[in-house]
Automatic annotation (TrEMBL):
Keyword Cytoplasm annotated: no
EC number from the UniProt entry: 1.15.1.1
Organism of provenance: Salinibacillus kushneri
Top EC class for this record: oxidoreductase
Lineage summary: Bacteria, Bacillati, Bacillota, Bacilli, Bacillales
Protein family per UniProt: Belongs to the iron/manganese superoxide dismutase family.
InterPro entries noted in UniProt: Fe/Mn_Superoxide_Dismutase, Mn/Fe_SOD, Mn/Fe_SOD_BS, Mn/Fe_SOD_C, Mn/Fe_SOD_N, Mn/Fe_SOD_N_sf, SOD_C_sf
Molecular function via GO: metal ion binding; superoxide dismutase activity
Annotated PROSITE patterns: SOD_MN
Name assigned to this protein: superoxide dismutase
């Protein structure tokens, strides 16, 4: 095991300690023994690799990450403890780390693009959102409607950019590709006829975006089913009352250094890294959120 991997595993152990402290400090939590048990099992699994200096594959690392993510989501979100994890204070959003190495998606997406896209472009949206939130707070009691309007627009653009990119990174995996399975696959077949028809419509939606934007598979809360929607920039022509499940960035910075002007080739290749497990997890949660159908 190399030093970088070992350092990352130690960071995961520290993260587990922080989660347990948050759980302990929450007086409304009634599942503390269960939480501690799950965290202990996860810790022990990681500690075994460290203690034995055991080699670990990328697949093993992804499994540890997925197990940790699923454990936290199950314990802290689905069991009614939504307030255990702290919210993000105004103007304090942070750039989330990539769930894989910068070169992990090659040859579909190059390391150079991933570094620029994540470290520069995504960071700029985080910075822009923080600035907008701070300025909205500053101008909230002012009569200057022009300034408030400006910063509300900045919040919409940068906030949407930040949140969509956060989904985008997790929607991809070096072990991605193929087709969805389980309930998601059944639902896609029910709505679109079959996976190939869905894939064709999603691909065409992405290719049809004028200028910069996104293609999305979303859960429509008012219809209780999935749908496909294209977005210009990060926030124009958006469909409301939906939960994004799968998103594809078709801004030039997502592909230009590698694919030049061939957006279509980038879109076609992107399917090889789609992380259907992440999409399935999002679908499983989204389908339980329903409003009165309309």
């Amino acid at each position: 095991m190399n030093a970088q991997t070992k350092q990352y595993l130690y960071a995961l152990l520290n993260w587990a300690d922080e989660i347990e402290e948050k759980v302990k400090s929450n007086q409304r939590n009634t599942n503390l023994p269960l939480v501690k048990s799950k965290l202990a099992n996860w810790r022990n699994h990681i500690q075994k690799y460290i203690t034995n200096n055991q080699s670990i594959t990328q697949q093993d690392l992804e499994q540890i990450q997925n197990n940790g993510r699923e454990m936290i989501e199950e314990i802290l979100l689905e069991r009614g403890n939504k307030q255990i994890l702290d919210g993000v204070p105004i103007g304090e959003h942070k750039l989330p780390p990539l769930p894989y190495d910068y070169d992990a998606l090659e040859p579909v997406i190059s390391e150079e693009i991933m570094r620029l896209h994540h470290d520069v472009h995504h960071q700029s949206y985080v910075d822009g959102l923080n600035k907008a939130e701070q300025m909205i707070d500053k101008w909230s009691e002012s009569q200057n409607s022009q300034m408030l309007r400006h910063w509300m627009r900045e919040q919409s653009f940068n906030g949407s950019g930040h949140f969509l990119h956060t989904i985008f990174w997790n929607n991809m995996s070096p072990r991605g590709g193929g087709k969805p399975s389980g309930e998601l696959a059944e639902h896609i077949n029910e709505v679109f006829g079959d996976f190939n028809r869905f894939k064709k419509l999603f691909t065409n939606a992405a290719k049809s975006v004028q200028g910069t934007g996104w293609a999305m598979l979303v859960w429509e809360l008012r219809s209780g089913r999935v749908a496909i929607q294209s977005i210009e920039k990060h926030n124009m022509y958006a469909l409301w009352d939906v939960i994004p499940l799968l998103v594809l960035d078709v801004w030039e910075h997502a592909y230009y250094l590698q694919y030049k002007t061939d957006r279509a080739k980038y879109i076609d290749n992107w399917w090889r890294v789609v992380n259907w497990r992440d999409v399935q997890n999002r679908f499983n949660k989204a389908k339980n959120v329903t409003w009165t159908f309309a």
